[in-house]
Design goal:
By secondary structure, the chain is α+β, with helices and mostly antiparallel strands. It contains 5 helices and 3 strands, in the order ααβββααα. It has one domain: Sufe protein. Chain: A (Alpha-Beta Complex), CATH 3.90.1010. Strands 1-2-3 form a 3-stranded antiparallel sheet. The chain is globular.
């Protein structure tokens, strides 16, 4: 387990975790959603500006472990220009990567490779995926 943890908590992952603060809350979002982990209490709130179902801006308030924070920052960094369906599909891919040994996403989402070693930490999977639940909720609150 120790080697898995040292593989997981790399400098790059920790840099993503600390970068989450750059995505501050939006003043007048078209939708807001919050997701909370039942297992650890981590919380992610997402503000979205949507044009149709395409994300034009994203803001975050994240109170989570390094893994949940890093995952949120990775998504927020590349979310603008993506559809809600694309983000939902990504979330399904990440669950599959963590739970079933599925492939690490490629292209815009290849940075999730830094979270692949977390598959051994089942109690952290929900925290890693909170960003997807919060985006889904934010997308469903839009008028």
């Amino acid at each position: 387990m120790k080697s898995a943890l040292s593989d997981l908590y790399q400098e790059e992952l920790l840099a993503y975790a600390s970068s989450v603060e750059q995505f501050s809350r939006l003043q007048k979002p078209t939708g807001t959603g919050t997701a909370v982990s039942r297992s650890c209490g981590s919380r992610v709130t997402v503000d979205l500006m949507l044009l149709e179902d395409v994300i034009s801006d994203i803001g975050l308030d994240v109170d989570a472990c390094a893994l949940g924070s890093a995952s949120s920052a990775i998504v927020a960094e590349k979310a603008v220009g993506k559809t809600l369906d694309e983000i939902s599909s990504l979330g399904q891919s990440i669950w599959c990567m963590l739970r079933d040994g599925g492939a690490i996403p490629t292209g815009d989402w290849e940075t999730f490779k830094f979270l692949a070693p977390a598959k051994v930490l089942e109690n952290r999977h929900q925290s890693i995926c909170l960003i997807f639940d919060a985006i889904k909720k934010a997308g469903s609150t839009t008028g």
